[in-house]
């Protein structure tokens, strides 16, 4: 014991500190954390920010460091940025997750989709055949704090797919699913009372496979694909008002917003409507392919900076590029949307029988000659920005700053700046055998999480500021979605949706 206490490695002199710093310089974040647990002096030496910075991002440039400092100073109103340091980033990158509990709806049907509201207190779980389950969070309760407040089947005509999204500022849910006897999806808007009684206030339709997207509390968008000519398809984006009149049926107030040409024959299935700050000149001073952005740099840290002030509405979709691989969505495309929407009221004087007869008469008319490809392109709105990606898109999510989106692909995760759509970071995954065509990723100021391996039940976790891989959360059944709960910086939680249950994991 006396030899250990008199060890020169525990002397608090300058030469010992310098030697320890030289040794710690080459340690990984996990080894540096273990070294800090040896004794009080080692903990003091290992707490130096420059050691953690080097262990996490050894090749970071001075320009990136300056940008990160400016971003951190700008984001001090955000709790997770107030106490941030490279040492804390090391703790985030090496944190271990444990599975705490499972949430299983009473209906017991295989799960498809999960949606969480803006406050993080309400969950909507959608299962096969339109079985909806709503959960409410109450941290004063024992256990995980979630309890089921509603379980019902919202439609008898849906198949084994579905999606849901909460309205931005109301207790209102937009859900969609495929009609069994029709080649289209049906969308329903459900209003909930304070005691969770629900009523359908709106119905709409969309092409197969497109998920619901709110514009605001009173409007949502739908996508309608059409084969206009051989090997040439277009998709019309329509705005739908949730205020409707009824005339023997639900009659939606629908107006077209824009028409998109489906490049490379790729269907539009992944969509996102975002309110983002105005672009700056510095956002456009970058021109690399996503595969080259392996470590955080200045543009990436600008994407993490939250900007207050005027904002603009933007539509982001996954699609193909001219000359790209046919049938695969390997790019992000973007369009500006109007800031406000004025929908005219609709009143139908004809009944269903009259409208059906008129439709059949139109269908009996001889078809018009299909337009050529170039003529069809001229009728569509060109994207205002685009970003080619090295692999097929599987999922999209907006970063909390509103200045970038995270894109899950079959080969990795990409961070793409907005609105310039420049690649900011690429997190490679390696080749995967994907049996899923869609997953739900999520991101906050500390972590990015995403299911990545089709059918394996794996969810990957990365630390946002350093881009370091944190953990692989393995589940027994296929993982479909991962959501980060809004929480205090020291109490992170992730919800992982599998076909069997919703798993709650915490640090």
TrEMBL record:
<dbReference type="InterPro" id="IPR011044">
    <property type="entry name" value="Quino_amine_DH_bsu"/>
</dbReference>
<dbReference type="Pfam" id="PF12937">
    <property type="entry name" value="F-box-like"/>
</dbReference>
<dbReference type="InterPro" id="IPR036047">
    <property type="entry name" value="F-box-like_dom_sf"/>
</dbReference>
<protein>
    <recommendedName>
        <fullName>F-box domain-containing protein</fullName>
    </recommendedName>
</protein>
<dbReference type="InterPro" id="IPR001810">
    <property type="entry name" value="F-box_dom"/>
</dbReference>
<feature type="domain" description="F-box">
    <location>
        <begin position="19"/>
        <end position="54"/>
    </location>
</feature>
């Amino acid at each position: 014991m006396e030899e250990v206490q008199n060890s020169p490695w525990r002397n608090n002199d300058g030469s010992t500190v310098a030697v320890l710093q030289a040794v710690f310089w080459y340690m990984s974040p996990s080894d540096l954390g273990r070294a800090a647990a040896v004794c009080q002096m080692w903990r003091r030496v290992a707490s130096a920010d420059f050691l953690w910075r080097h262990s996490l991002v050894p090749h970071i440039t001075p320009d990136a460091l300056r940008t990160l400092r400016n971003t951190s100073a700008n984001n001090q109103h955000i709790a997770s940025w107030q106490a941030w340091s490279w040492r804390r980033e090391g703790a985030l990158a090496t944190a271990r997750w444990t599975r705490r509990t499972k949430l299983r709806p009473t209906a017991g049907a295989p799960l498809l989709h999960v949606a969480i509201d803006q406050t993080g207190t309400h969950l909507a779980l959608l299962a096969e055949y339109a079985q909806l389950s709503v959960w409410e969070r109450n941290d004063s309760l024992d256990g995980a704090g979630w309890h089921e407040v509603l379980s019902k089947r919202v439609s008898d005509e849906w198949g084994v797919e579905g999606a849901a999204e909460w309205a931005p500022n109301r207790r209102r849910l937009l859900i969609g699913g495929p009609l069994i006897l029709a080649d289209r999806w049906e969308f329903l808007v459900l209003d909930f009372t304070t005691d969770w009684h629900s009523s359908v206030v709106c119905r709409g339709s969309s092409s197969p496979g497109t998920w619901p997207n709110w514009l605001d509390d009173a409007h949502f968008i739908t996508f309608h694909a059409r084969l206009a000519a051989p090997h040439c398809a277009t998709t019309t984006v329509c705005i739908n008002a949730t205020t409707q009149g009824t005339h023997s049926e639900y009659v939606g107030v629908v107006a077209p917003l824009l028409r998109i040409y489906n490049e490379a024959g790729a269907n539009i299935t992944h969509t996102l409507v975002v309110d983002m700050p105005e672009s700056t000149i510095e956002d456009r001073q970058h021109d690399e392919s996503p595969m080259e952005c392996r470590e955080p740099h200045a543009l990436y840290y600008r994407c993490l900076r939250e900007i207050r002030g005027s904002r603009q509405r933007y539509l982001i979709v996954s699609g193909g590029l001219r000359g790209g691989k046919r049938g695969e969505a390997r790019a992000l495309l973007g369009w500006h949307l109007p800031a406000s929407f004025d929908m005219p009221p609709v009143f139908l004087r004809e009944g269903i029988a009259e409208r059906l007869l008129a439709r059949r008469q139109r269908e009996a008319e001889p078809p018009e000659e299909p337009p050529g490809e170039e003529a069809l392109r001229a009728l569509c709105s060109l994207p205002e920005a685009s970003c080619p990606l090295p692999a097929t898109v599987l999922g999209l999510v907006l970063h909390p700053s509103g200045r970038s989106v995270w894109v899950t692909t079959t080969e990795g995760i990409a961070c793409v700046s907005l609105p310039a759509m420049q690649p900011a970071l690429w997190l490679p995954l390696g080749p995967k055998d994907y049996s899923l065509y869609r997953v739900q990723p999520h991101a906050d100021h500390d972590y990015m999480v995403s299911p990545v391996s089709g059918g394996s039940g794996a969810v990957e976790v990365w630390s946002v500021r350093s881009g370091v891989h944190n953990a692989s959360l393995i589940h027994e059944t296929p993982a479909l979605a991962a959501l980060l709960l809004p929480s205090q910086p020291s109490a992170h939680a992730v919800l992982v949706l599998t076909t069997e249950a919703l798993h709650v994991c915490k640090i």
